[in-house]
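As a warm-up, study this chain.
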Amino acid sequence: MSYYKLYQSFYKRQNHQILHPPRLCFDTLEFYIDIWAGDKLIYSDVVHGPVFDAGIKLPPHRISSVLGYHLQATEYKMMLAVEPTFKLPLSQPVSVSVLVGRKDTNKLARIIHKAMFDYIDRSSYRAMAFDVIDISPMYRFLPNIRGWISLLFMEGGDECEIDVFGIQMDFNDVANSKDELLALTDMEADQLDPFEATARVNKFVLPEFILQWILCSLFLVTGHWVMVLISLPIACFHLTLYLKGKHLIDVTEVFRSLAREKQHRVIKLGIYLVFLCITIFRVALVKFDTLRSAAADPVYFR
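Now compare it with the structure written out below.
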């Protein structure tokens, strides 16, 4: 074979590649969707894969013809009818987070994390947000892939709020079919199930509070005033959380409160390390004084 024939065989890119059957199916998937207006959770639901895959079969009558044509288009997209509908205030920042999990494992993948609905297209009656998908390190050479989510709203209403009746999610940058979307989902990075993660953290909260209250009381009784001054703010903070019923992490708010909870625990860890350093120093000091006093005592011989 000549170099010219070899060049003719490979100079054109092969666009028609056979996609291997996906290892996932919608029957084993669940989508966790949370939408906030400011700090208020206005929508939260766990959507089963077949429901998201089936789309909106009976759209409401009060939608525009443009949106009706979009719902009937042939390109693949996942859609969900919101029942009951909810009002979306436009005067506040609105954000969304989406996770996808498998029913047969305790792992989830993050699709969208606190993406803002910055663009509201009133001509197509959609409010859109996107985020870069968290791909597994096994596929480190893939470019950034965006996941899009849209809120579908009805005609009418006022300038301050919109009436949302549906949610759409797609990955049209790279996935235009059901099998392509499932293959893309299989490449996303696994994370711990939020229900299991919050359960693991919450079981240590009350023991930590009780132990810290006991230590603060012992410092107070024994007259260690410096330790009391260090531990008393944490004890008051724990007591305030307990009386308000906010000492446990709410699984529905875990993504919203993750940064705050992490900051609280980092600060407490620093204070506990100060406790440890002071305790080690005092133990070493007492031991040193004991050895020095023993060495200073006179020894008498008979």
